[in-house]
Amino acid sequence: MIEVLPQTQGDLLAVRVSGELTNADFDQYREKIRDRMKATGSARLYYEMADLHWVKPGAAMENALLDIVHGREYGRVAMVGNKAWHEWAAKLVSPVKKKGVRYFEVEEREEAMRWVQEGE
């Protein structure tokens, strides 16, 4: 499940993901990123993984392709999580993002939000 957070505005997309992410969830997420980039020319991302259990492999691959194609259009990207694989995922996608990805633990979510809101 993907929940768009109220901090979403301008070029900032803030989401909380939980449960099991499906192709439909990633379709919704990619559409929102494309909307931000179309409207503002870039996108900053706050991506909080709360009780995230599983990501469908096909959905993850489609999302990775979006990152490869558009990753250089992203500004700051903050990923927030609480599991070792969450941090590993942030490190895995970091090289394709213009500004990389900064990982924060769940207890640091407020710091992560402030950091990503600072923009460039």
From TrEMBL:
InterPro entries recorded: SpoIIAA-like, SpoIIAA-like_sf, STAS_dom_sf
Protein origin, superkingdom: Bacteria
Xref: Pfam families: SpoIIAA-like (PF11964)
What name does UniProt use for this protein?
SpoIIAA-like
What is the native source organism of this protein?
Pontibacter ummariensis
Source taxonomy: Bacteria, Pseudomonadati, Bacteroidota, Cytophagia, Cytophagales
